[in-house]
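Project outcomes to date are best conveyed with an example. Our students and postdoctoral researchers have been running inverse folding experiments weekly, and each run begins with a structure described purely in tokens. The record below, which covers 323 residues, was selected by the lab manager from last quarter's runs and is presented without edits.
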């Protein structure tokens, strides 16, 4: 017989069962032949041990039940005796509480009657005092009405005086505002005159041939060269002063657009820059300059950064624009 696969081996073993033991011996697995018998013996032994354990458990359970029955009966008897003692003690305590409650209730009734009589007496006395107080209050109300009428008259007079005082204060404020405005104008005019007259000395370190330009002549010159809008013309005419000069080092021409006031603020700086920008757009090398006796912090910062020239009582800041 030719064997070529495991199926062929199985068919041979089915045809010759007596060969199976020999095959197991060759494979070293002959013990497997006796395994079913051993397994049956093991199962039988386990069944016998389990039956013995069950019998022992039944006996112990029965003994435990008998012992607990006796203890339970003793506990029940003890519980009945304690319960009866507790009930008797509770009845005695309840009776004592009832007696104490009756005594306290009677004492409270007697005390309440005494307090009620005292309260009634005090109420009558308070009512009498209240009648007297009401009478005094009516008199006080009548007096208060008379005083209220007098106060109303006084208040009306006070309002009239207050109105006159407010009018006077408003007049003083208007006068003060006008005076401040006039003083500011006078100070500004003084600064304009100061820098117009001393421009050659103030800017002499940086400029030569400083000349104050006539605004009419400057506008005629600009209009002869290019078209000038009315808005730009008005801006240039509003400038405090425009100077023509040449730079000391480079000899280049420069137009100084000046805004002067006693206190130089951002508005002055913006006007100077705006008017210098108009000239620059028209082809004139213009420089914005602000001048005064006092100056706002933002203007100092702008001059330090080189956006504008600041002349402060003859001292110049941001002079790089003039060099």
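After processing, the design step wrote out the following sequence:
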């Amino acid at each position: 017989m030719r064997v070529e696969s495991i199926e062929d081996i199985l068919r041979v073993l089915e045809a010759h069962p007596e060969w199976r033991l020999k095959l197991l011996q060759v494979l070293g697995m002959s013990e497997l032949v006796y395994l079913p018998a051993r397994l049956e013996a093991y199962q039988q032994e386990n069944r016998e041990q389990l039956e013995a354990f069950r019998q022992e458990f039944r006996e112990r359970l029965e003994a435990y039940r008998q012992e607990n029955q006796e203890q339970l009966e003793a506990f029940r008897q003890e519980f009945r005796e304690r319960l009866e003692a507790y009930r008797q003690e509770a009845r005695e305590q309840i009776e004592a509480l009832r007696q104490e409650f009756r005594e306290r209730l009677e004492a409270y009734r007697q005390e309440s009657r005494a307090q009620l009589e005292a309260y009634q007496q005090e109420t009558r006395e308070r009512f009498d005092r209240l009648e007297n107080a009401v009478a005094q209050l009516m008199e006080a109300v009548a007096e208060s009405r008379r005083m209220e009428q007098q106060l109303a008259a006084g208040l009306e007079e006070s309002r009239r005086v207050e109105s006159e005082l407010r009018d006077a204060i408003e007049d003083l404020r208007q006068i003060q505002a006008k005076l401040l405005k006039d003083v500011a104008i006078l100070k500004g005019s003084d600064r304009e005159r100061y820098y117009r007259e001393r421009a050659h000395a103030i800017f002499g370190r940086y400029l030569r041939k400083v000349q104050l330009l006539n605004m009419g002549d400057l506008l005629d010159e600009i209009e002869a060269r290019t078209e000038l809008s009315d808005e730009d013309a008005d801006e240039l005419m509003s400038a405090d002063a425009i100077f023509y000069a040449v730079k000391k080092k480079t000899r280049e021409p420069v137009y100084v657009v000046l805004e002067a006031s006693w206190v130089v603020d951002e508005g002055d700086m913006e006007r100077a820059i705006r008017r210098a920008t108009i000239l620059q757009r028209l082809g004139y090398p213009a420089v914005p300059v602000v001048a005064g006796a006092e100056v706002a912090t933002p203007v100092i910062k702008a001059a330090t950064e080189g956006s504008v020239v600041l002349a402060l009582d003859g001292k110049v800041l941001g002079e790089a624009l003039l060099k």
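Residues 175-188 have pLDDT under 50 and may be disordered. Strands lie at 207-212, 241-247, 253-260, 263-264, 286-292, 294-295, 309-312, 315-317. The training component of this project remains on track.
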